[in-house]
Amino acid sequence: MNVASVSPSQRTLLDALKRRGRASVPQLAAELGLNIETIRDHLKTLGSHDLVRRDGVVRSGPGRPEVVYILADAAEALFPRREGEVLRELGSYLLNEGHERLLRDFFGQYIDQRREAALARVAHLEGTARVEEVARIFSELGFMPVVERVGDTARLRLCHCPLRDLVDATKIPCGAELAFLAELLGERPSRVSYLPDGDTSCTYEAVGAERC
């Protein structure tokens, strides 16, 4: 469920939970001016999409205690975020202050933490099967890869850059990406297209990945 599929009424409920932190159905109904059943229906729908969840009960008087709801972690994506902007400015600051090596060391460590497990996943694979497993690894990293076969070669298109804002400040992540990709493929691929140049993807051609 994304921003476009959340109804205005559901969005108002999510905003109310964001402000309150946690609330029961009667509390939400009173604040939003909606009836109890409408609130329950909204919570059921939002809960099915992992946007809200139950967080215990509260007793506000005689009778049964009321279930309390809070936002689920996935709902945070529906609210304004500025990590990309801040990351870009941090990258620019480090470069301007002469700390390029620090950035390179950071990305080296970032890949080091993932290298062993990733290499183990491709160690027994060759050709197109290896490229497809590399694609799965890069999918888990947020790159939205697509494998295409062109003659006797395989092309790996990375359709999304999860660090696009930082790449606007420095191409250091691109170098780290290419080096990691080369390790996983067992060869250094040639770059066919490049997102920062205005292309629709970063595309790499793996010459050794024959059609299986």
Plain-language structure description:
- There is one protein chain.
- Helix 2 (25-32) packs across helix 3 (36-48) and helix 5 packs parallel to helix 8 (172-185).
- The protein has helices spanning 8-20, 25-32, 36-48, 83-96, 100-122, 127-140, 164-167, 172-185; strands at 23-24, 52-58, 66-71, 145-150, 153-158, 190-193, 202-206.
- It starts with 7 loop residues before the first helix and ends in a 6-residue tail after the last strand.
- The protein is elongated.
- The strands form 2 sheets. The protein has a 4-stranded antiparallel β-sheet, with helices on one face. Strands 1-3-2 form a 3-stranded antiparallel β-sheet.
- The relative contact order is 0.10.
- The protein folds into 2 domains: 3-78, Winged helix-like DNA-binding domain superfamily/Winged helix DNA-binding domain (Arc Repressor Mutant, subunit A); 83-206, 2-Layer Sandwich (Muramoyl-pentapeptide Carboxypeptidase, domain 2), CATH 3.30.1380.20.
- The chain is built from 8 helices and 7 strands; from the N terminus they run αβααββαααββααββ.
- A hairpin with a 7-residue loop joins strand 2 and strand 3.
- With 212 residues, it is of the alpha+beta class.
- The longest helix is centred in the middle third of the chain and has 23 residues, at 100-122.
CATH class of the largest domain: Alpha Beta
Helix-and-strand structural type: alpha+beta
CATH topology of the largest domain: Muramoyl-pentapeptide Carboxypeptidase, domain 2
Instruction: Tell me the helix content.
Output: 40-55%
What's the story with the biggest beta sheet?
4 strands, antiparallel
Terminal residue distance: 38 Å
